[in-house]
UniProtKB/TrEMBL annotation:
Protein name: Rid family detoxifying hydrolase
Keywords: Hydrolase
Pfam families: Ribonuc_L-PSP
A molecular function GO annotation: hydrolase activity
Family classification: Belongs to the RutC family.
Database matches in InterPro entries: RidA, RutC-like_sf, YjgF/YER057c/UK114
Coiled-coil ranges from the UniProt annotation: none
Length: 126
């Protein structure tokens, strides 16, 4: 049975989807972009700040499901420019213990919602 997970501490969905869906002990999180949920403003000053906002949004969705980054088993990172990989990776890496970090792919895409530079989705298991 699935349970929809939502929090006002992360941006509301931009379309017909939810922030996350919990099925048994597995949380499937929709991609997050750098929208500050308190102001609705985009955080696009630089790629590191943009990535920090994305990770903060993901952290809040995890918390709404009573989980943390330690529960994450898989991530998908979408970049508009692979030249940003090192900076995104540096910020992203700060949220995980390298020895137990989740599986991941990082891909460059032509465009992302609202023409942001990075979007990240996750799967977590409790």
């Amino acid at each position: 049975m699935k349970k929809i997970i939502t929090t006002d501490k992360a941006p509301a969905p931009l379309g017909p989807y939810n922030q996350a869906t919990l099925v048994d002990n597995t949380l499937y999180m929709s991609g997050q972009i750098a929208i500050n949920p308190a102001t609705g403003a985009m955080v696009l000053d630089n790629i590191k700040d943009e990535t920090k906002q994305v990770m903060s949004n993901l952290k809040e969705v995890l918390a709404a499901a009573d989980m943390t980054f330690e529960h994450v088993v898989k991530t998908s990172i979408f970049l508009s420019d692979m030249h940003n990989f090192a900076q995104v990776n540096e910020v992203y890496g700060g949220y995980f213990d390298e020895a137990t970090a989740p599986a991941r792919e990082t891909v460059e895409v032509a465009n992302l919602p609202k023409f942001v530079n990075v979007e990240i989705s996750m799967i977590a298991v409790k």
